[in-house]
């Protein structure tokens, strides 16, 4: 699909408002700059600079309602000012309004300070992890299996996102001399599949 051209096809750019939080915020602001907070990229948080264009796939990072939860893939449509982002579920005409909200990373000791980021709770989703793809239906899937799946059922979850096996492609290593050509390891816990022994 080609990107839209002409008026209205410009990129939309949103810069986050990052701030220190907590009782020590004022004292810590002397040594921790806003620019440093802007540079932080951590899992589960949107980037400081979010650049979108109509038709781009995005993924929610927070639960907004029961049918719009963390990991839901959407298609970016447009914005309403700089506070509301409009997106659609793939294959749907329903417009979804996503507000710009205040997000805080988990307080797991990674940072010796508390901070927050006000941004749209989305990231670009041209690719997603196998776990984030679970439960979703896609037109076609490319699976990077250079590193094998690490837990039971992941290979199945990845390959079953589409109904037609001709729409699934794996990127895997050639194993010379193995006699099997291209291979990847499918992790299976046989104890899960074995029938219960009579007790």
From TrEMBL:
Name by which UniProt lists this protein: DNA helicase Pif1-like 2B domain-containing protein
DNA helicase Pif1-like 2B domain: residues covered: 35-75
Biological processes per GO annotation: DNA replication
PANTHER family in alphabetical order: DNA HELICASE-RELATED (PTHR23274), OS03G0423850 PROTEIN (PTHR23274:SF51)
Source organism phylogeny: Eukaryota, Cryptophyceae, Cryptomonadales, Hemiselmidaceae, Hemiselmis
GO cellular component: replication fork
InterPro entries on file: P-loop_NTPase, Pif1-like_2B_dom
Originating species: Hemiselmis tepida
Pfam families according to UniProt: Pif1_2B_dom
Superkingdom of origin organism: Eukaryota
